[in-house]
Design brief:
The structure is a homodimer. The first copy, chain A, is built from 4 helices and 6 strands, in the order ααβααβββββ. By secondary structure, the first copy, chain A, is an alpha+beta fold. Chain A folds into 2 domains: about 70 residues, Orthogonal Bundle (Arc Repressor Mutant, subunit A); about 45 residues, no CATH class. In chain A, the strands form 2 sheets. In chain A, strands 1-3-2 form a 3-stranded antiparallel sheet. Chain A has a 3-stranded mixed sheet with strand order 5-4-6, with no helix packed on it. In chain A, strand 4 and strand 5 form a beta hairpin. In chain A, helix 1 crosses helix 2, helix 2 packs across helix 3 and helix 3 packs across helix 4. At the A-B interface, strand 6 of A face strand 6 of B. Strand 6 of chain A pairs antiparallel with strand 6 of chain B, so a sheet runs across the interface. The complex binds manganese (II) ion (MN) (2 copies) and zinc ion (2 copies). The site of one zinc ion has 3 residues of chain B, from helix 4. The structure holds a DNA duplex.
Chain lengths: ~140, ~140
DNA sequence: TTCCTTGTTTATAATTATTCTAAAGAAGAT
DNA sequence: ATCTTCTTTAGAATAATTATAAACAAGGAA
């Protein structure tokens, strides 16, 4: 449980002005036990439902990208019509339930270390992600 | 090197009528030594350039999805504004050069077997794909 | 406080990838 | 040749995302 005051400080420390909208979004995204996977639209609807206040869709996009740029959110590479984000910014892998369109964290120990035995000259590895698609 | 006649037969055997457009697309996609990674727009432009004939964008979409449904193309899960397809339909992994927006095949032996040590009740694994993002 | 600067929110328009529609055309069967 | 079914096509529709620009709010200085 993080207090509103802590979010305000975190925002300030990130040179993001602590607006009402951003604080609301912080509380929805980061006051959780478990990691949260969402699309912009999920979040947009959650804000209305949980706070009663509406935040414009543009602001949701702006804020999510601001948090993403600061490293507070991770973008998940799946083929979908919508982009998925994740509050768990550590390196980790995913199940994707194709039917439910839901992401599930896969702990690294459930996948094991992955060694890439090939390299591309002039390039270095930025991330290694496993996506396990699930069907019924 | 596959002849036009062989593409015609392959299309017929797939209950796809061998139209001029589909044959052209087959020749561009499948008359290659190496695996080919592309977006719809890449392909659309290639057809014009290589055959001199234009195929409507709708037909390119239709054909790619028809081939995809028949299992002749694979869809690659990356976060991008465009969907990527692959003429290599076997299970395999990828590098994605973020700067060049280019996919590179990773052979299975360059990654090694991946064992998923977790299961979700009522679901079974459909695919396991590794995406290695590259930066400079 | 008040003023000023800069960052933020917002409604709305623009952009872009993809899908849909419906009419014209081509393929295959009879 | 005729008929049916499938395919192509231009263009419209949809949907996610980004851009625009005016109103607004935060923070700092006076
Ligand atoms: Mn996750
Ligand atoms: Mn490939
Ligand atoms: Zn982002
Ligand atoms: Zn498809």
């Amino acid at each position: 449980m993080t207090s509103k005051q802590e979010f305000i400080e975190k925002l300030r420390n990130s040179s993001l002005r602590p607006t009402k909208q951003r604080i609301n979004i912080c509380e929805i995204l980061f006051n959780r036990d478990k990691t949260f996977h969402f699309t912009i639209n999920d979040l947009f609807n959650l804000i209305k439902d949980k706070t009663g206040e509406k935040v414009s869709l543009a602001t949701v996009y702006n804020t999510v990208h601001a948090f993403h740029k600061k490293g507070y959110l991770k973008e998940i590479p799946i083929n979908s019509n919508q982009t998925y984000f994740d509050t768990n910014v550590t390196d980790h892998h995913h199940f994707f339930d194709v039917k439910e369109e839901k992401l599930i964290d896969l702990k690294n120990e459930h996948v094991g270390p992955i060694e890439i035995q090939k390299s591309i000259p002039g390039k270095k590895i930025k991330s290694v992600e496993v996506l396990v698609k699930l069907e019924d």
